[in-house]
């Protein structure tokens, strides 16, 4: 194994990683720590205060460039979802599926699977708004308690769909970039892990809910869902705008056309082998076309102005969600190519980046193996999710996975495992303040929802980690 010379930059970077994890465990914001880390690294790299300070801004620019496509696709998808909700098209799109929900068991799995599919295209938070209001009354009618509907939406949407993120590809891009891997390799490696995690967690939750499921209620007055004011999370866009209706015939046309367009996108991805940025661009472009078409149909002469308003709303959402991520990503990008681009290659000759150097160095002094690597990635991913944002720490996950790559040769599996753990814990299944959208629409306490999700998620992470050990 080649001998890597570690310099103060390596140790400072590692020290700040440990400090960031410690701050996350205490559920504190890590922005200031990340900025301090960037400044310290800049000072060591340039040996000037000016270089240190300017490095902060330049690292933010670098991180924003890397994340820009992800921010844009999420913002556009949210903008489109707003117009679908306010025109009533979303209700027409989902209503036909309710005819298949006749029992509480069917309601649990039906809501979950529909939430998973919609979340793959719209992301979970918009998906909750898209389908929750329509499917919750049906679920309660057939005997599924509101907490059961909330659990299903959480585990299938914020868990399975978001941890894989195979359509929008925001999560795998972040982790793959930080690990220095192709996005495709992380996505392929995550497939068995996402499947195992999903099966174990959803089956555990279903088993725990079985005693609360009741026989279907067929009287209208018996199954009216509880109505509570929906609490707003910081990252949720305003839903209080007036509803703009379309003629029923036009709503039905759009309700058929929109899923067909996205289905066509999926077909084109396979036929043309579109992946990563190309696949994201196809989805984003389709969403923009749908947004414009529906806005013009709904608002007629004011269609242009309203399209702009929906885009503004979407971008407010996108930057509000990713605002806390940019400083964190800026720090962790320094562990790879950004350090050379921003600070004129301050590392010793033969270096392959701070993270890779640390991985090689650790391999010589720590008895790391596949088992240790898998357990470490699961714990690290779960810890980074404690801040309630599944995305804020997955750059760290990718960086740490790269450290183990030299000894396990399974960086994609380790990266995917850390991504799954981070998203499941922080993306909206265990942290109460990340559960507000689903809890609000179902009229349940987010703290109770987090408590009920705890055992299924822990069981899922345990089994998934064991599976990952055998895959390494």
TrEMBL record:
<feature type="transmembrane region" description="Helical">
    <location>
        <begin position="391"/>
        <end position="409"/>
    </location>
</feature>
<feature type="transmembrane region" description="Helical">
    <location>
        <begin position="106"/>
        <end position="122"/>
    </location>
</feature>
<feature type="transmembrane region" description="Helical">
    <location>
        <begin position="6"/>
        <end position="25"/>
    </location>
</feature>
<keyword id="KW-0472">Membrane</keyword>
<feature type="compositionally biased region" description="Polar residues">
    <location>
        <begin position="228"/>
        <end position="241"/>
    </location>
</feature>
<feature type="transmembrane region" description="Helical">
    <location>
        <begin position="188"/>
        <end position="209"/>
    </location>
</feature>
<feature type="transmembrane region" description="Helical">
    <location>
        <begin position="32"/>
        <end position="61"/>
    </location>
</feature>
<feature type="transmembrane region" description="Helical">
    <location>
        <begin position="279"/>
        <end position="298"/>
    </location>
</feature>
<feature type="transmembrane region" description="Helical">
    <location>
        <begin position="253"/>
        <end position="273"/>
    </location>
</feature>
<feature type="transmembrane region" description="Helical">
    <location>
        <begin position="310"/>
        <end position="334"/>
    </location>
</feature>
<keyword id="KW-0812">Transmembrane</keyword>
<keyword id="KW-1133">Transmembrane helix</keyword>
<protein>
    <recommendedName>
        <fullName>Transporter</fullName>
    </recommendedName>
</protein>
<feature type="transmembrane region" description="Helical">
    <location>
        <begin position="421"/>
        <end position="442"/>
    </location>
</feature>
<feature type="transmembrane region" description="Helical">
    <location>
        <begin position="354"/>
        <end position="379"/>
    </location>
</feature>
<feature type="transmembrane region" description="Helical">
    <location>
        <begin position="67"/>
        <end position="85"/>
    </location>
</feature>
<feature type="region of interest" description="Disordered">
    <location>
        <begin position="218"/>
        <end position="241"/>
    </location>
</feature>
